[in-house]
Specification:
Order of helices and strands: EEEEEEEH
Number of helices: 1
Largest sheet: 3 strands, antiparallel
Strand order of the largest sheet: 1-6-7
Helix content: 10-25%
Low-confidence stretches: none
Structural class: mainly beta
Distance between the termini: 40 Å
């Protein structure tokens, strides 16, 4: 079995892929994300987006953030 353990307390009580939500104007929910611009065009800017996900330890409360497409973001960054 491939269990994830907390790096802080070694607990296996991990909440995986929790979404981090911001409640904006009029209580509209928006999941937090990272955007990297791929182009510097004035009219047609393209960006790569990745939602930020959290792993939360249910024992000590340590939170680790991650994204699902790091290579795609890196490639956009180095352009």
């Amino acid at each position: 079995m491939n269990e994830i353990k907390c790096k802080n307390c070694d607990s296996t009580k991990i909440i995986k892929d929790a979404k981090i939500t911001d409640f904006g104007h009029a209580n509209i929910k928006n999941n937090l994300s990272i955007h990297i611009k791929e182009t510097d065009s004035i009219f047609f800017n393209k960006s790569v987006k990745s939602e930020i996900l959290a792993q939360i330890c249910g024992n000590c409360g340590k939170i680790e953030l991650k994204i699902n497409n790091p290579k795609e973001l890196w490639n956009a960054y180095i352009k």
